[in-house]
């Protein structure tokens, strides 16, 4: 979105002279001192859902609590690392909860929070739209 690009350009040294390779490198690693404020509600939602695997994880969790291994089997082609990253992101966003049980080996289950459950209708509508138009 334009505010993000403006913020990156404003705080980076792009166009400030110097070596273009160094400029591109520093711009790609740049983290603004003050975060960009997102005002668009759709963009906020997409940031919560962000990532390649989030929709598939949510699809599986709409059926109920799942263990990591079950999610990995049901979501084909997802690596353990990508699944872990996606689950952590959704947990940080308050969409799902992680429950750890002190067993050997450790058992971890994931379930949706009320915030995550509220996404169910949105994804149903996206599925209907896709069936009609995609």
From TrEMBL:
**Cross-referenced Pfam families, in alphabetical order?**
HxlR (PF01638)
Q: Which top-level group of life is the source organism from?
A: Bacteria
Record-linked InterPro entries: HTH_HxlR, WH-like_DNA-bd_sf, WH_DNA-bd_sf
The reply to whether Iron-sulfur figures as a keyword in the UniProt entry is no
**Alphabetized GO MF terms:** DNA binding
Give every HTH hxlR-type domain span.
Answer: 40-134
Question: Which UniProt keywords are listed?
Answer: DNA-binding, Transcription, Transcription regulation
PANTHER family reported in the protein's UniProt record: TRANSCRIPTIONAL REGULATOR, MARR FAMILY, TRANSCRIPTIONAL REGULATORY PROTEIN
Q: What is this protein called?
A: Transcriptional regulator
- Species source reads Paenibacillus monticola
Q: What is the lineage of its organism?
A: Bacteria, Bacillati, Bacillota, Bacilli, Bacillales
